[in-house]
Amino acid sequence: MAIDARQYAPATQRNRDVILSILHQVLPTQGTVLEVSSGTGEHAVYFAPRLQPRYWLPSDLNPVAQASIAAWRDHHPTEYLLAPIHLNAEDSSWLVEQEGVYRLVEPIVAIANINMIHISPWSACLGLLAGAGRILPPGGILYIYGPYKQNGAHTAESNAVFDQGLRSQNPAWGIRNLEDVIEAAQIQQLKLLKTVSMPANNLSVILQRN
């Protein structure tokens, strides 16, 4: 009997609909959305059929996550959900940039990143922003979801406790300061369009390529 490689992240069930509502508002109407750090793949398999005719391209650094994404895709097939690719946000060149290596059905017009930058080193956030600056066309969208500090302070006590727990697991992890992310984005020709307050003290941060 085949082993089911699907993994589950409980938070996905809680946040997928509110994230989807924002994506409907901010994404270009067609093209490919590259999801950086897709994790279990539950967001990808939920969003792809609901955002068509856009294509959704999931990716992850972790082979176990890639297997989970592929398994979810097998259970809920749709032509608009592409096969997962290996992607390390910190790499100076991503697979989708390498001519003749990966062929896109439609050009990448947006990048989505959900709950990554607080559970990875700051260099991963910088890599995400740099990659978006390289890949996105003028007017392209970078969507980042997760908890943030604002003006150096946590927005809720629960976030402060969460941040402490993250840093105890790995000192390089932690909730990022929104202003630092925006400043780093500007260096990559990405301007802030808006932020949207989300449930459970999270934010949707929408950036656009100049």
UniProtKB/TrEMBL annotation:
Record InterPro entries: DUF938 (IPR010342), SAM-dependent_MTases_sf (IPR029063)
Pfam families linked to this entry: DUF938 (PF06080)
Residue ranges that the Swiss-Prot or TrEMBL entry lists as coiled coil: none
Name of protein: SAM-dependent methyltransferase
Species annotation: Acaryochloris thomasi RCC1774
Top-level taxon of origin: Bacteria
PANTHER family reported in the protein's UniProt record: UPF0585 PROTEIN CG18661
